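Changelog excerpt

This revision adds worked examples to the README so contributors can see how folded entries look when concatenated. The first example is reproduced verbatim below.
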Amino acid sequence: MKYQNLIPTVLFFLLLNCSPVTAQNADSLLKYMDNLMSAPKDKVATMQMTLTEKDGKVKTKEALLKQKGKDRKMYKYTKPESQAGVSTLSLPGDVMWLFMPAFDEPVKITFLSKSQAFTGTDFSYEDMDSRSYTEKYAPSLKPSADPENYTLELVPRTKKSNYSKIIVTLNKANNYPIKMEYFDTKGTYFKLATYQYAKKGKYWYAKEVLMKDLKKGSSTKIVMAEISFDQGLKDDEFTVKKMME
């Protein structure tokens, strides 16, 4: 009888001790992923974009990417000629700017605008901002039958998100994402991103990302080319003035 009374107490303390461990593992995994993605001090690359519409029509774009640390990032389109000079700038404090030469003045991207397509692609402005996933999302580790990958569920830390959750399949060996499944604020699964990683020197990087919009039937593929790391970029490379040059 005494042993029977002890069982609920033992189970209670076991569950109490296990819960923080699971939470800590999820937090650690997400931090590892963030650290891998932002490991270089800075990077410069050419982004080659292929946009495929539902009817099969294909468009191509090219942009120069510059990034310093975790919270400074600039995209500047170089091709096609009609979009050359269009640029975006992400800065600390969740600040994002858009510049279109035809309008001559930069525009600050608001929360309401972040659900919109990033310069006509299947990525949103929220997808392309410079904040870390740890900063934006609270993670939990989900059961998985896959021996090679973890499954993380990411829930926005604030209501200032256009997603209700993101399900991340995370490679166990290298801590990089294999795929991300996006759910809108109504809980509908509507976007899928898949990743192919490569290593240059001591850094892993997303060589190819394919984002599919399951509602529209369109997709955007981004391929990183001519990438270089640790070029010594200064903070003054990431200003609204520089974005407009």
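The second example, added in the same revision:
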Amino acid sequence: MEKILEVKNIEKYYGNKSSLTKAIDGISFDIEKGEFVAIMGSSGSGKTTLLNLVSTIDKVTSGHILVECLDITKLKGEELNKFRREQLGFIFQDFNLLDTLTAYENIALSLAILNMPYKEIDEKVRKVAKELNILGVLEKYPYEMSGGEKQRVASARAVITNPKLILADEPTGALDSKSSKMLLEKFNYLNNDLGATILMVTHDAFTASYASRVIFIKDGKIFKEINRGDDNRKEFFDKIIDVVTLLGGDLNDAL
């Protein structure tokens, strides 16, 4: 299988010599093309820091992160901007849609930045909107949409450029249970039918059970890793709960 992401012995420190905090402590893992991987851990475990490092929002203190053999820890300036623009898709808990743009315009924006012809942009936007069942909201502004609709618009925006890697930060955190289930089923569609590679941070075992693999983080280190294999989602959910229980005092934070 082709490796999309290689995380090699990364560390991240915050603070100064008098007050130094080690947020990430020697983490290494790979993600292959077409995988859907969840990162779980309690508040303060380092899972969000890890996602920020992979997304280039933050910089590693040491170690290397490679996306399709490109060492992104060495990218700077326009080279870094180009990588973010063309190779990564982002889905945030608070949607991060532009309030002054319609759903259509929010989705199309990243293609317009790439100077794609209008006809091609229109075809791509309508195709992904149909796949995510949001054709009916394309002319609406964010304030006119439900939370679930906004998150699906954000998902469409993330996949429209066919990025190498989609990064999702607590994507169901602001959604009710019905909207969460609908979004996660769309994630599975993106992953299984469109071949999208997804790395998702979540504190929720139900959300994580939609992934094909879960990596558990504790105190900035990998605590355990489990694969779904041939398990159905309920069986995988039960295995996730078993690991969360092993985390002891972190149980309430991880569910």
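Reviewer comment on example two: The first helix runs from residue 47 to 54. The domain at 3-254 is CATH 3.40.50.300 (Rossmann fold).
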